[in-house]
Amino acid sequence: MTEKMNNRAYQICLHCIMDTSDPNIVFDERGWCDYCNNFESTIQPNWHTDRTGENALELLACKIRQEGQGKDFDCIIGLSGGLDSSYAAYVVKEKMGLRPLLFHVDAGWNTDQAVGNIEKLVDGLGLDLYTEVINWEEMKDLQVAFLRSQIPDQDLPQDAAFFSALYRFAHKYKIKYVITGSNYSTECCREPEEWGGYLGIDTLLFKDIHSRFGKRPLGSFPLVDIIVSKGFYQKILGMKIAKPLNMVPFIKKNAEEELASRFGWQRFQHKHHESRFTRFYEDYWLPRKFGFQKRRAHFSSLIMTGQMKRDQALERISRPEMDEHFLRQEFEYVASKLDLSVAELQEIFDGKNKTYRDYRNKRWLIGLGTGVLRCLGMEKRFFR
Predict the structure, then answer these.
(1) Strand 4-5 to 8-9 pairing
(2) Of the residues 99, 121, 258, 350, which has the fewest C-beta atoms closer than 10 A?
(3) Distance between alpha carbon 373 and the CA centroid of its chain, in Å?
(4) Residue 129 DSSP symbol
């Protein structure tokens, strides 16, 4: 029987495992998807982790050191305890010789493993850590509002807290360079926005959803619009976002082993599992309510970069990442933490699915800006 999805015949890429659960995916005559073609034509030729990357890394380090002279810290790194940000911290301190401030946002969903990894890196690298704790009542209210909105983008409240707090802190204390763990190696295939991959922090969307479903003011919740962070902070004030992992050999398995051997860092079963809510959202809520598997994009990135065989990805995507008993326990935990009964959370889960298009937003403007960045060569990943 031919599987139907979004009124088109089911098709899966013959190179990675992206498929027609992305309703706008396009395949060429080889059966390769546009994500693979973008990697082959745009990312790979401009991604250098050899001597060219090494030189670029050293040049970046020199600039940051020079502009950070006389300051307590010459850059800031958002640290979650996950692989990408952890390895970025290691690279910045040990390979670039910089003096970063480690910045962590506690939004209420840290796993014990993430907290342990952060502590091990702080001690092992001899760096200072600043933790910003989000007001839990406000965080909870915003997350419940988003759940009631019925859109796939359920990680937007956490993302807003993480990035807004980081950018706001860097701006306040005049730290010019913000280091991120963003990279091509594990993230060259970006999930489409239909899967909850909205293009950025859109305060218009946040305010509309919260005005409809929220119950308390967000007096202290950090919320920096993407137009402010990319336009005002970066283009006018000169804040720089640096991605050193794109300049060094960054192989997921090797990086995990290196962090484990040097610091006792513990690897996670899968990407984003440092947050208990994100783990629940990506492993339970999104695939079962909406039919989207972000693991498809995660595994496809590893396939494109030669770190995973397609057959391995197909086998792993065929089964849930976590077992059924664990997932049901997490459903109950999330309900309790958000002050919802299990029945209330189940009622939300069973509700009619919607998208961000059902709410006020400025997606067109954000998309325009992203398109300009791609035209200028400042963004090479494929956004849809």
Answers:
(1) antiparallel
(2) 350
(3) 19
(4) E
Q: Please say if the pLDDT value at position 93 is more than 60.
A: yes
The count of C-alpha atoms lying within 13 angstroms of the C-alpha of 208, restricted to the half-sphere facing its C-beta, is 13
DSSP conformation class of 193: G
Q: What's the pLDDT score for residue 3?
A: 38
Task: Give residue-wise pLDDT tens across range 223-244.
Answer: 999 999 998 999 999 999 999 9
Among residues 246, 190, 294, the alpha carbon closest in space to that of 44 is found at: 246
More confident residue, 172 or 370: 172
Contact 181, 175 (CB under 8 A): no
The pLDDT value recorded for residue 373 is 54
Inform me whether the pLDDT recorded for 6 exceeds 70: no
Structural domains in the chain, sorted by start = 35-375 (3.40.50.620)
Read off the pTM: 0.93
- Residue in this structure with the two tokens 């988003």, named with its chain if needed: 146
What token pair was written down for 170?
């860097």
**What is d(CA 250, CA 57) in angstroms, rounded to the nearest whole number?**
13
- As a whole-number percent, the residues of the chain with pLDDT over 90 amount to 89
The structure tokens 């850059």 sit at 75
For residue range 101-120, list pLDDT tens digits in order.
999 999 999 999 999 999 99
CA dist., res. 201 & res. 379, Å (int): 17
Taking the CA atoms of residue 88, residue 91, residue 96 and residue 102 in that order, the dihedral angle to the nearest 10 degrees is: 50
Token pair belonging to 284? 């339970």
* Residue from 89, 73, 72 nearest 81 by CA: 89
* Interatomic CA distance for residues 349 and 202, integer angstroms: 24
For CA atoms 258, 262, 264, 265, give the dihedral sign.
Answer: negative
Q: How many residues does the chain have?
A: 384
